[in-house]
Design goal:
Elements: H1 7-16, H2 23-30, H3 36-50, E1 54-56, E2 59-61, E3 69-77, E4 83-87, E5 99-101, E6 115-122, E7 130-139, E8 144-155, E9 158-164, E10 173-175, E11 187-195, E12 202-211, H4 219-226, H5 235-242, E13 253-254, E14 262-264, E15 273-279, E16 289-296, H6 298-301, H7 307-315, E17 319-320, E18 325-326, H8 331-337, E19 345-355, E20 361-372, E21 376-378, H9 379-386, H10 392-415, E22 425-429, E23 435-440, H11 445-467, E24 474-476, H12 482-494, H13 507-517, H14 523-533, E25 538-540, H15 564-577, H16 586-590, H17 592-622, E26 629-638, E27 641-646, E28 652-656, E29 665-668, E30 673-676, E31 682-684, E32 688-697, E33 702-710, E34 713-714, H18 726-741
Parallel strand pairs: 5-7, 10-12, 13-20, 14-21
Antiparallel strand pairs: 1-2, 3-4, 3-6, 4-5, 6-7, 8-9, 8-11, 9-10, 11-12, 15-16, 16-19, 17-18, 19-20, 22-23, 24-25, 26-27, 26-32, 27-28, 29-30, 30-31, 32-33, 33-34
Helix pairs in contact: 4-17, 5-7, 10-11, 11-15, 12-14, 13-14
Length: about 750
């Protein structure tokens, strides 16, 4: 092949030779030399101008085609773990092709947004045109942020900025023109950090417009996006859920005549547990009771390796917000087939426990059965029935359950688990999603009755699986670390209480401290301090006991609708009893430690999201009361200010140290005090204070307070820096931004 080709011949050659596309390759192929090289350049330029060719990295190709080596960007890792990528620079008129990445042993783990240099080859499978093999990873995926977009047309290089939604964060990100997705001013957006100058604000590219952050019910959306909580189910999982059918009696024990009832909050979104109690007629167990706990048989519907199972493991648990729930399972299961509705037959895994008169468990057995709940009660209805104010039929169902509770309470007292008194906050919303009220939920003996029944069922599950030598996931709560105990001890001593040292810590010692604080002005402070001293509970394949409950072995069995760990325990019980093929698969057993780490991580994620959402709702509730005065107590002291818990709502706000009095305050981290350098006034934990609400930010959930009085003594708000020595003032000024971030 010699001589300058025409344009069609040149294009045909480029199609047939995808790996040889430089100008030198073309010249060699056609034997082009001398003056013909200039003519080749002209022809290639004309083909570029006509759109028939494009040039990149000194190589020519037709638009909409892939080179043998491409820079790709990872765009999706699906529930099966398959990794899909797209070419980073795509100029075709059609959507960029999806390329399946084929990893090899030794390849690094990839995440969404990672840039990778790959060899491209045609794919053999249906639905895909190409697959890729890694040459090297160029860069990791960009960090994602959630914030409020503010338009700014003052500079042609910047279209706007993104303000953070995290409480206490000060950094902003600039958005260049072309990266705004046409977001409106004040809109909540999700963005990727793309770089920027070494000094100054980083740049970001908006990838999703979430909506109006001030709109009712947008508060939980901020947390969902900020923490990356999956809130859409894949089509495969929804399809499996829609095809599910309730099982019959085959292979199940008939438990329909046992007087099961469900007891839940009035706004419960699912009912996955039912309880029943009947007197034990065994003469060898005088005063004994048979307590039944039945749990929805989720394992029947969610099989190992299914799309539902993969999605449930990905989510780890349901996440609950005041206005919505992000469920672990689709609604077809969580609110229908796996919800133990009254007078409807439902499949369960149940445990029958024989209790002595003093609440000791004498025996237990598990069964796979079918029940029909006789009533769906709220906690207040169950309590009213126990108090004799309910319908006769309800009172008849409830009386044996409370008898079982009184027996279990005796055993609980003897066991002495950690006895924290932490009321649960309740946020009431209107139909439009606006906060109507903030209060604390009533706590009845009915709550304690259900808690004790569930704890005992969880213990029975762990004991059964250990006896059968079956692997399982334990709920682990290790002892508090020494540094946290030291901090708790200092807090207790600051309010005149003591926590003995130099001995092996037991829950009874912490309970003694809690009892000493009960009924005093420091009760809430001590309860919160004891809670903060605890380690974070987690899931593990190894049994390290449960310190808080004072139990040697403990597993979660009672909520498989909303916790993946419980589903694993159900499958282990199915395998241990030989109830069917839907038990714990060998592949699952091999990766139990990985599953434990995954669901422990998702649990922490949900807790943070729920806590942040509550803070934002509280700030929205209080935003209309800026300027009003409140009573509260000092709940924390830091070098940058004082934290105050407000009475009534339980909201926490910050009094910046720069606004406390007209003097410099010294911070004592060990004693947790602030001491005025001139007056000698000491501000410490637990002190009653009066404050003014200076600012409430519903977007971040932050509250800024002004201190008016401490223990009834008025303060004079002002800048403490004015009274500090000059050298100290300079230090404060330099450290001001750092304190604000803290």
């Amino acid at each position: 092949m010699t001589g300058l080709p025409d344009k069609d011949a040149l294009l045909d050659w480029l199609r047939d030779n995808p790996s040889r596309r430089t100008k030198r390759d073309i010249a060699r192929a056609f034997g082009i030399k001398g003056a013909e090289r200039t003519e080749l350049k002209r022809m290639l330029r004309e083909l570029e101008d006509d759109g028939a060719l494009e040039k990149g990295q000194k190589r020519y190709r037709e638009p909409g085609t892939l080179a043998p080596v491409e820079v790709l960007r990872v765009v999706e890792i699906d529930r099966d773990g398959d990794i899909f990528a797209e070419p980073q620079n795509w100029s075709g008129s059609d959507a960029p092709p999806r390329i399946l990445y084929l990893p090899r042993d030794g390849d690094p783990a990839l995440g969404e947004g990672d840039r990778i240099l790959c060899r491209i080859a045609p794919a053999a499978g249906p639905g895909l045109l190409h697959h890729a093999r890694l040459i090297r990873r160029i860069g990791t995926g960009p960090r994602r942020i959630v914030g409020i977009f503010r338009r700014d047309g003052a500079s042609g290089r910047v279209a706007g900025r993104i303000e953070p939604v995290e409480k206490g964060a000060e950094h902003i990100h600039l958005v260049p023109p072309g990266d705004t997705m046409e977001a409106e001013d004040g809109e909540l957006v999700e963005a990727e950090v793309t770089g920027g100058p070494r000094l100054g604000p980083r740049h970001a590219r908006i990838i999703e417009r979430v909506g109006d952050p001030s709109a009712p019910r947008a508060v939980s959306l901020i947390a969902i996006h900020h923490y990356g909580i999956p809130d859409d189910f894949p089509d495969a999982a929804l399809r499996e859920a829609s095809q599910a059918e309730p099982p019959g009696m085959d292979g199940r024990e008939d438990l329909r005549e046992i007087p099961f009832v469900t007891i839940d909050p009035p706004d419960a979104r699912d009912r996955d547990d039912a309880v029943a109690a009947i007197p034990d007629d065994d003469p060898k167990n005088p005063g004994g009771i048979i307590l039944w706990v039945a749990i929805a048989d989720v394992a029947h519907f969610v099989r190992p390796g299914s799309a539902l199972d993969r999605e449930a493991l990905l989510r780890g648990n349901s996440t609950y917000f005041p206005d919505r729930v992000v469920p672990m399972l689709p609604e077809r299961l969580s609110s229908d087939l796996c919800s133990l509705h009254a007078e409807v037959e439902r499949a369960v895994i149940a445990v029958r426990m024989v209790l002595s008169a003093d609440g000791q468990k004498r025996d237990h057995r598990f069964t796979r059965g079918l029940i029909r709940s006789h009533a769906a009660l709220s906690y207040s209805q169950a309590q009213a029935a126990e108090d004799g104010d309910g319908p006769e039929a309800t009172c008849t169902l409830i009386a044996p359950l409370f008898a079982a509770y009184r027996a279990l309470a005796k055993a609980r007292t003897k066991r002495a688990p950690l006895n924290l008194d932490l009321p649960e906050r309740q946020i009431a919303l209107s139909d439009a999603g606006e906060v109507l009220s903030v209060a604390f939920r009533d706590r009845f003996d009915a709550h304690k009755m259900i808690e004790e029944a569930m704890v005992l069922a969880n213990v029975a599950a762990a004991e059964t699986l250990e006896a059968a030598r079956r692997p399982l996931l334990y709920r682990v709560h290790e002892e508090p670390q020494q540094d946290r105990l030291d901090a708790l001890r200092e807090t207790a001593e600051s309010v005149g209480l003591t926590l003995a040292k130099g001995q092996v810590l037991k829950t009874a010692q912490l309970n003694h401290l809690l009892d000493a604080a009960a009924g005093t002005e420091f009760a809430e402070l001590i309860n919160m301090s004891v809670l903060r001293a605890q380690t974070q509970a987690y899931y593990g394949a190894e049994n390290l006991s449960h310190f808080g409950l004072n139990l040697r072995r403990y597993a979660h069995f009672t909520s498989p609708i909303r916790r993946y760990a419980d589903l694993v325990v159900h499958r282990a019980l199915i395998s241990a009893h030989g109830w069917g093929p839907d038990g714990l698969a060998e592949e699952e057993i091999a990766v139990l430690p990985d599953a434990a780490e995954q669901i422990s991580r998702t649990e922490r994620r949900s807790m943070q999201a729920e806590r942040d959402t509550t803070d934002r709702y509280l700030a929205a509730y209080l935003a209309e009361r800026v300027g009003e005065s409140f009573s509260g107590r000092i709940s924390g002291i830091a070098r940058f200010g004082v934290f105050v818990k407000l009475e009534g709502s339980g909201a926490d706000g910050l009094v910046p140290i720069s606004t406390i009095g007209n003097e410099y305050f010294r911070h004592d981290a060990e004693a947790q005090t602030l001491t005025g350098s001139r007056s000698g006034r000491v501000i410490s934990l637990g002190m009653p204070v009066d404050v003014r609400l200076a600012e409430a930010d519903p977007i971040t959930g932050g509250l800024r307070l002004e201190l008016l009085a401490v223990e009834g003594r008025r303060t004079n708000p002002g800048a403490s820096r004015k009274s500090a020595p000059k050298s100290r003032r300079r230090t404060l000024k330099k450290g001001g931004r750092k304190r604000g971030r803290a």
